[in-house]
Model the fold of this input.
Amino acid sequence: MIEFFQALADPDNRFLAYAMTMGGLASIAFGIIGTFVTIKRISYLAGAISHSVFGGIGLALYLQVGMGISWFDPILGAVLAAVVSALVVGLVSIHAREREDTIIGTLWAVGMACGILFIDKTPGYFSLSSYLFGDILLISHTDLVFVICLDALIVGVVVLFFNRFFGVCFDNEFTLLRGINTTFFYLFLLVLTALTVVLLVRIVGIVLVIALLTIPPAIAGFYARRLWQMMLYSVLLCALFTWTGLGISYSFSLSSGPTIIVLCGTFYLVLLAVNKWIFQQKK
Done:
């Protein structure tokens, strides 16, 4: 880890400074949206959205390289695919409960498959590992601007509509009886989740996205008594795991995304065992 701090202090290693900044800023979005995803128990919907993102990335690469549309960036394709998938998955979960798991599973698989097919038809060679497993060291200044805008959007929306999101997550029927359009706010929450997923893809990749979105809030749930506390703890834990995982991966020449997830998962399992042991001792 000493080597990591020395490299971080070197002004020539700007990519490390970007990565650390990205980890801290992204934790705001992860912690807030991850708390809603965990409380509402819609991690499977977030998983479907995250894998559909790959279809948008593949389409963007095909249009950019194969068709010469240079302005169609993969991140733009990912955002479009994520938002469309969020709306489709949300409407399916509301109106087609009988076959919800099958339809969502189909969208999950088709999104990935379409992305691969588009990349197959794109001239040249593309490494898919950074999209599948993430690489926080490839963060650019544009990515930082994107995450700052996303953080501002999420914080602003949550402050304005906190009680409505709270009601949708904890008691949808009562909230509906209060005259609040629960369908709109549920879909709105999924769209915010979709945008956060796009951000997560840059850090831990499509395959591991659910873990970083749900594990920190799950740990925070052990100790938080209020929803805002859970969000705050989740933000701090996301930053801690991201920064620590980045340092470990750099020091031992490991992939950053999987290292962050293994650190998250290990920490969660240890705390889960400790809490269960304490509970047994009190009985």
Q: What stands out?
A: The CA atoms of residues 224 and 230 lie 5 Å apart.
